[in-house]
Amino acid sequence: MRIGVVAIPGTFDSAFTSVLDILRVAEMLRPSVDRDIPPLETTVVGLRPSVRTAGGLIVEADRALDDGLDDYDVLVVPALGALSAPAVEDALALPEIRRLRAVLHDSPEAELPRLAGACTGTFLLAEAGRLDGVTAATSWWLSETFRRRYPKVDLDTSRMVVRSSSVLTAGAAFAHIDLAVSLVAETSPRLAETVVHHLLIDERPARSMEAVHAHLAVTDTLVTRLEDEVRRRISDDLSVTDLADALGVTRRTLERHVRLRTGATPNQLVRRLRAERAKHLRRTTDLSMDQIAHRVGYANAVTLRRLLASTT
């Protein structure tokens, strides 16, 4: 997964750095968990060559926004560094923020990566019209302002992280941690669990009950065991019933755990893991599409191309 993290001028230091730290730790741990897990490539996307955070940290960009967004699978917009409605509105009026808003608003949806935002960063996504018609989260103390400004967004303040097909949003400042863990978990629940334990994320005090439930879902051992089983037998003809039998649970139990953890069915999770393995093989080997198709459980390249097109 190729992830661009936007360096927002004046952002809260922890909001920006926590996302980078979690994603980079995940990549450091990935080979020890499973080398076949697709790499997490993290890039700092600059609105300027360098920006200063709220605490005075100078962040140098790896790439400029003007270089385009085609190379990213996900673009993360962290907090704007504002704690009140007037401060958020002032931040949205900054020239750099208006330029980012214009890029996100004017680009055809097919040319944009998946978008992710946390805390007041969700205001920028909404300002660009990218949250219209979907359910999203934001900082709870700004919910009235958010609803007034963006009536087309279905705001949900009861959840820490809200997923939709094209965007991933999270609530207040420390929800950046949950946002980053969720991105890792989309690549590999097992890797996310390892990151959580290494960084002692589960020891954070005073989390909401929703965050507790989200964390329990991330560390659901049945789902990580399923991931291991699928990766081990990825070239086989896999059915949900066979997988449930191999894990010693009923099909219904397996489906419930997978849906709670990922929002998908077991079959959808299997397809995602097959697609990830295929993309990894395309980047790292000289195998033909037909050869890759056989290695990930498909009969031919035509079927594989359909899978990859549907998961892009």
Notable traits:
single chain, alpha/beta, Rossmann fold, Arc Repressor Mutant, subunit A, 2 domains, 7-stranded mixed β-sheet
What is the fold's blueprint, element by element?
Layout: E1 2-7, H1 13-33, E2 41-46, E3 50-52, E4 58-60, E5 63-64, E6 74-77, H2 85-92, H3 95-106, E7 114-118, H4 121-127, E8 135-136, H5 143-149, E9 154-155, E10 161-163, E11 167-170, H6 175-187, H7 189-198, H8 209-218, H9 221-232, H10 240-247, H11 251-262, H12 266-284, H13 289-295, H14 301-310
Parallel strand pairs: 1-2, 1-6, 2-5, 6-7, 7-11, 8-9
Antiparallel strand pairs: 3-4, 10-11
Radius of gyration: 20 Å
Q: CATH topology of the largest domain, anyone?
A: Rossmann fold
Count of strand segments: 11
If you average the pLDDT, what whole number results?
A: 85
Shape: globular
The total of helices stands at 14
**Helix share, percent:** 40-55%
How would you explain this protein's 3D organization?
- This protein is α/β, with parallel strands linked by helices and 312 residues long.
- It folds into two domains: 2-188, 3-Layer(aba) Sandwich (Rossmann fold), CATH 3.40.50.880; 221-310, Homeodomain-like (Arc Repressor Mutant, subunit A, Orthogonal Bundle).
- The chain has 14 helices and eleven strands.
- It has helices at residues 13-33, 85-92, 95-106, 121-127, 143-149, 175-187, 189-198, 209-218, 221-232, 240-247, 251-262, 266-284, 289-295, 301-310, and strands spanning 2-7, 41-46, 50-52, 58-60, 63-64, 74-77, 114-118, 135-136, 154-155, 161-163, 167-170.
- The strands form three sheets. Strands 5-2-1-6-7-11-10 form a seven-stranded mixed beta sheet, with helices on both faces. It has a two-stranded antiparallel sheet with strand order 3-4.
- It is globular and about 55 Å long.
